[in-house]
Specification:
The complex is a heterodimer of chains A (285) and B (391). Chain A is mostly helical. Chain A is 73% helix and 3% strand. Chain B has 391 residues and is of the alpha/beta class. Chain B folds into two domains: 192 residues, Response regulator (Rossmann fold, 3-Layer(aba) Sandwich); 154 residues, Response regulator (Rossmann fold), CATH 3.40.50.2300. The chains are: A mainly alpha (285), B alpha/beta (391).
Chain lengths: 285, 391
């Protein structure tokens, strides 16, 4: 059972990271290569807020808001001119954003590792089925569940969610019906960016903050959303949980096979159901 | 007449050319630095650069010409490392200095051999550099993985551990180091109760930490580097693993990584590749100059870069000429009595420098020292910690 709990915490952290990526792709059709860099920026901004205020919760609340503003600028000045053009241009411009963000982080925070700790209220441990688990990991599980429920509800059950889904399905029709699609895209990108930053802030107490920390995590994010289905929140949750459990089982029984198992799962999914586990197949003409 | 005039002119020009070639000595002693200044190993490369700058400023001249350095950023990529090293060698550097990671150093070693230019290695620890892949022009003044593993084995003996768990990065150096430790444990009658090889860049060690905690081991031997070390120690510290199963390793921890882990790092034991607190006159002088220039404490990469270059400058001055073959011949039999570590000796058989080994424990510091730092707790004489000379 402790394996399940730890697998769940690994999965939930992956979901926090992948949620923003899948929302941006699902709603805007943009594969955001800068997602890992934005996650890194979120971690560093959270670190800085903690340095100033000594309060992790303020960092979790305001850090993503600040990074979302950066996301808004990225969407407005780099992606907006490229909607409707080949995906290659979007890939190139988001890759360029990666380089700019990395350099900016290097200039502001330098090359040294930075450390962020869990808040004192979550610094303890709990025994779960014979294993010692940190309270912070239990928080990640609860936070991930709450966030995924909130996202799912917002997208599927609210008017705003309906507008977003409509605009992503047929932006021209939505525009004709009076929806400001241009502004909507910016808002969706900012939400996706904020989610990346939330992932960074939450991961901070578990991982070292270092330049390039986003480049390793972006691969995991893509694996999760490809397995779950691009643009599908439910798929991202299940994909993240599946990968989390594979990682946990891999560590328990065969730690040197973890990567192989993860990518084998990806290959099998692409071979059997390339649209992802929760997306519908597209119709062929 | 015209033909004779042309022939005379040609003869005169060749004479001028010969004279020019004979009288041409370089106007500077150029160090070609191939180090990672960006990417995952940027900290390592920038530290090497800083240590080298102190050495250059201290000596200023070699063979009566100024010392200058040309730095090329390898971006922590082996293919870029090879390109940049080739560029520097084509530009006519006097010595190649670098690289950071062992993989990159191994990649550029053949270039130094081809061009017959000395390559000074002051960071990379792979045994192959002065082992299977050694060449005439490559010299290493820093330590190697074998030495560090031997020191860890000596620690296991001294500490009286009865059982050890192994955690290593899933790379050749990780597996080789753990295999060497396992073989030694078997000889000593000490149990190895478990092993895990985690992929490089692992984000989560919680299950492995749980296994270590439940294994009944007296100690866990860790072979990881950089961010993997920090991730493991942070997550282990959060469940207070070190208080139940003491953690020790080979050069996986320094002041920078200790600071990144936080207070949970206290008590972790490691080989210290260098430490600013080590009491030698050369080290005191270096640390003072480094703090004055950079306002920070030097780390192992800076310390070794400084020490290695000073040693090489001494060798070149002793030779007194620009004959590279003489530099190589002199370097391979040289000693460095005033290194930052105390006396050091270059081994002619493999071009590996030999000196004392430092064993340390992470501890809390007090001003003006960093809040968390390594404290050197014991030293190992060089006798038993270096590999036998290859045939």
């Amino acid at each position: 059972m402790s394996l399940v709990v730890i697998g769940l915490s690994i999965g939930m952290l992956l979901f926090l990271l992948a949620a923003g990526l899948t929302i941006i792709f699902g709603m805007l059709g943009v594969v955001n290569f800068a997602h890992g860099a934005l996650y890194m920026l979120g971690a560093y901004v959270a670190y800085q807020i903690v340095q100033w205020t000594n309060n992790f919760w303020l960092a979790l609340l305001f850090g993503p808001c600040l990074v979302a503003l950066v996301g808004g600028l990225i969407e407005r000045f780099t992606l907006r001119p490229l909607y409707g053009r080949d995906h290659a241009y979007q890939l190139l411009v988001t890759f360029a954003c990666v380089l700019v963000i990395e350099e900016a982080v290097r200039l502001v925070w330098g090359v040294n590792f930075r450390a962020m700790n869990a808040p004192p209220s979550l610094a303890g441990t709990t025994e779960v089925f014979g294993s010692i688990v940190t309270d912070y990991r239990l928080f990640i599980i609860a936070f991930g569940i709450a966030l995924s429920a909130g996202l799912f509800f917002a997208i599927e059950k609210t008017r705003i969610g309906m507008i977003v889904r409509a605009a992503s399905s047929n932006s021209i029709m939505a525009s004709c019906l009076g929806i400001d699609v241009v502004r909507l895209r910016t808002v969706v990108f900012m939400v996706g960016t904020a989610l990346a930053a939330v992932g960074g802030a939450v991961a901070g107490p578990l991982l070292p903050l270092k330049l390039g920390m986003g480049s390793t995590i972006i691969i995991d994010c893509f694996v999760v959303i490809i397995i779950g289905g691009l643009g599908n929140i439910k798929g991202a949750i299940i994909g993240a949980l599946v990968i989390g459990m594979v990682r946990a089982l891999g560590q328990q029984f065969a730690s040197d096979w973890i990567n192989m198992l993860t990518y084998l799962l990806l290959i099998v999914t692409l071979a059997v159901r390339p649209e992802g586990l929760f997306n519908r197949r597209g119709r062929e003409a | 007449m015209r033909t004779a005039l042309i022939a005379a002119l040609a003869l005169a020009c060749s004479g001028i050319g010969l004279n020019s070639a004979n009288s041409q000595t370089p106007t500077a002693f150029t160090i070609g630095g191939v180090v990672p200044l960006s990417g995952a190993y940027a900290l390592l490369g920038t530290s090497m650069q800083k240590g080298a700058e102190i050495a250059i400023e201290e000596r200023a001249k070699v063979l009566r010409v100024p010392i200058k350095a040309i730095w090329e950023d390898t971006e922590t990529k082996p293919q870029t490392s090879v390109q940049k090293a080739s560029k520097l060698l084509a530009g006519g550097v006097s010595i190649l200095f670098g690289d950071g990671s062992s993989g990159q150093t191994l990649a550029i070693m053949p270039l130094a051999q081809q061009r017959k230019i000395p390559l000074l290695v002051t960071t990379s620890a792979a045994d192959q550099i002065t082992g299977a892949n050694r060449n005439r022009y490559t010299f290493r003044t820093s330590s190697l993985a074998f030495k560090e593993t031997r020191m860890a084995i000596e620690y296991v003996k001294k500490a009286g551990l009865k059982s050890v768990y192994g955690l290593a990065v899933d790379q050749p150096v990780g597996r080789d180091t753990w295999n060497m430790m396992k073989a030694a444990l078997k000889e000593l009658g000490i149990q190895s109760v478990g092993e895990d090889f985690a992929p490089i860049g692992s984000q989560d060690y919680s299950i492995i930490i749980d296994k270590i905690g439940k294994s009944g081991a007296d100690g866990v031997f860790v072979v990881t580097t950089g961010s993997d070390t920090i991730t493991f120690l942070k997550q282990a510290g959060q469940v207070k693993l070190n208080s139940r199963v003491p953690i020790f390793g080979t050069g996986f921890l320094d002041d920078d990584t200790a600071a990144a882990v936080g207070p949970d790092v206290v008590g972790v034991k490691t080989v210290a590749r260098y430490h600013f607190s080590y009491d030698t006159p050369a080290n005191k002088r270096f640390v003072e100059a480094y703090r004055k220039k950079f306002n920070e404490w030097p780390n192992a990469y800076a310390g070794h870069a400084y020490d290695g270059l000073i040693w090489f400058f001494d060798v070149v001055e002793k030779v007194g000429s620009w004959d590279v073959e003489k530099w190589v011949a002199e370097f391979e039999k040289s000693s460095h009595p005033n290194s930052v570590f105390g006396p050091a000796q270059m081994r002619a058989c493999d071009h590996q420098a030999q000196g004392v080994g430092l064993w340390a424990e992470a501890a809390k510091g007090s001003a003006p020292y960093p809040e968390l730092l390594l404290k050197v707790t014991s030293t190992f004489p060089p006798d038993h910690i270096y590999p036998a000379c290859p045939n």
